[in-house]
Amino acid sequence: GFAIGLSGLAFLQHATEASEYTLILLLFLVGIQLRNNGMTLKQIVLNRRGMIVAVVVVASSLIGGLINAFILDLPINTA
């Protein structure tokens, strides 16, 4: 996938937008699934294990972005 992305093929021109819309759709579907299981927003937000997982995912994503910024010689605010 990485090599194909670097190839610059014409049909990959809108891959960023397509992936963004796909993620929005996935979030929407997860919300529907949570609602169908009868979970309230309070149960979701106050779930300790879920919050720990979310914090770890955010922290590891930020660390990965910083590492890639240094590798690719990008400014940190754009990584």
Spell the H/E element sequence: HHHH
Task: Summarize the biggest pleated sheet.
Answer: none
Strand residues, percent: under 5%
Structural category: mainly alpha
- State the share of residues found in helices, binned by percent: over 70%
Q: Give the CA-CA distance, first to last residue.
A: 20 Å
Mean pLDDT across all amino acids: 84
Count of runs of 4 or more consecutive helical residues: 4
Taken together, the total number of domains comes to 2
Number of strands: 0
Which consecutive residue ranges, at least 5 long each, have pLDDT under 50? none
Q: What would you call the shape?
A: flat
* Rg over C-alpha atoms, rounded to the nearest angstrom: 17 Å
Describe it.
The chain is mostly helical. The chain has two domains: 1-39; 47-79. Helices cover 72% and strands 0% of the residues. It has helices at 2-7, 15-36, 41-45, 48-71. 0% of the residues are buried.
